[in-house]
Amino acid sequence: MTTGYVFHPIYLEHNIPGHPERSERLQRIMQSLESSGTLARLTSVEATPLDLELLSTIHDPNYIKRVEMVAESGGGMLDLDTYVNAHSYEAALMAAGGLINAVEAVLSGQVDNVFALVRPPGHHALRDQGMGFCLFNNVALAAQCAIEKHGLSRILIADFDVHHGNGTQDAFYERDDVLYFSTHQYPHYPGTGHWREKGQGRGEGYTVNVPLPYGVGDEGYAQAFEEILLPLARRYHPELILVSAGYDAHWADPLAGMRLSTAGFHRLTTTLVSLAEELCQGRLVLTLEGGYDLGALSHSVLATFAALSREEAEDPLGPAPGRSPSIDDLLQNVKEVHHLT
């Protein structure tokens, strides 16, 4: 397996000290990749700025201009949680552009799979509003590029961030060229992602939410992937799999209450690698979303890269304490609404 990565120093310039979504997240990841020897085995995929015409297919031009103007003025807040500094607009363009380059590297056969280590994250960003630490919706833009530029018609987006990707869901809620699958803590920020939210119109059935209760761990996540994601993906038969890879479902993360471990993230990624090999010539591209405990984040990203290369990984933090709740009834509801029974 040839695995690529995307990184650019501008991603570190989007920063406010003390904010959970801070540059130290990516600094720690890069340090772990380098010290472990992993980075030397990866293929670098260049990051370049996103084309503004493509950006306006997902985001309102007035909103794009607003982010640019706030950055030019020195920075400010888009909402209570989401900041812009003087470098944020450039970093956001480069984040989305880096992910799109990752998609193109996979589609061209340059690499088998890629993990785009980008900031700011994206899956909460709505058409006309940044929120949840997100400015532009990187994964939605990458899917749109694959559809418009490369002629793909079936893209799977799998989102295992602990928060529901409301922006991604909203972008494709009435479309069938993207199947959006999300596991997330519920109820939790941003409050969306009930299993009854399944798309509408042409997109009915192509939004798949698995709203997990507090405290679900490795086995529950694996069960959701096995019983929901795998049969839906096989029915859909995607041409490309994109992943919103958030690590805030780790049991050590301070912003949520789930019980995934580093080994659990390795297992989920291994499932996605196998699924991509089975359905779409291994075409798999991940983009970094959340994850706010620096140790859990860096170890879990390292484990993800190991899984992308079909290697084993260490879990220095170990399993979560306590027990997970049953999700059998929830999964039955999801199965019924998506005709998997």
Features:
341 residues; alpha/beta; two-stranded antiparallel ribbon; 10 helices; 10 strands; eight-stranded parallel β-sheet; Arginase, Chain A; single chain; 39% helix
Describe it.
The chain has a single domain (3-337), classed as Arginase, Chain A (3-Layer(aba) Sandwich). Helix content is 39%, strand content 14%. It has helices spanning 23-35, 52-58, 61-72, 88-107, 138-148, 166-172, 218-236, 262-279, 294-308, 328-337; strands spanning 3-6, 43-45, 75-77, 83-85, 113-116, 155-159, 178-185, 207-212, 240-245, 284-288. The strands form 2 sheets. The protein has an 8-stranded parallel β-sheet with strand order 2-1-5-10-9-6-7-8, sandwiched between helices. Helix 1 (23-35) packs across helix 9 (294-308), helix 2 crosses helix 5 (138-148) and helix 8 runs parallel beside helix 9. The longest helix is centred in the first third of the chain and has 20 residues, at 88-107. The two termini are 35 Å apart. The mean pLDDT is 98.
